[in-house]
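Go through the following before class.
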Amino acid sequence: MAIPLAAGMPSERLEVRGAAGHIETICDLPAAREPRGLALVAHPHPLYGGTLDNKVVQTLSRTLIELGYVSVRANFRGVGETEGVHDHGVGETDDLLAVVQAAQAHFASRVRVAPPVLCGFSFGAFVQTQLAQRLAPERMVLVGVANGRVAAGREYPTPPVPPDTLVIHGEQDETVPLANVFDWARPQELPVVVLPGCDHFFHRKLHLIRKVMLGAWQAAPVD
């Protein structure tokens, strides 16, 4: 079952129906300020333990809340209370679009109508690149983005992304080789922020993700 990011942090559950049924969705709200927008955070591969409570996903969400966004996390098909079975990113993209539309309608009176920020980790980052082909995001943050042939022989044909996309990758990523990300980013002339000494899951280095994101947004101090 999905849990709020921290005790006392405002959160809401959102009822979302996708093509395969119910999509478990939790929305974490910034405290002491009016939300500046919506941000959708996608988790890593569901067949390898990925959930919306993943530590990298939580780090992304907390940072987005610190930046003033409503952070929307959803479980992919077959995870938690989300119905359906894994669809290799196809149905998952449809589901994320349904989540965005539901969140925009739900928060219409509290958040200005604007494109969402799309964030994702690993498989979730790949799915967000698919979603970005169908809607124009405010901005994207892709951490450990899957591209090319990765661990377990999986293959990801990751499409290009907007030029202001923030790409963060671990120097010692054992799941998605750093070279794969450079091969994808190079023809786009897209900068990649490489975190030294970090593996795919950023063990003991999660604070660096937050630091890079806050710097990219030039965030003001938290109220």
Notes: The chain has five helices and ten strands. Confidence is low (pLDDT under 50) at residues 219-223.
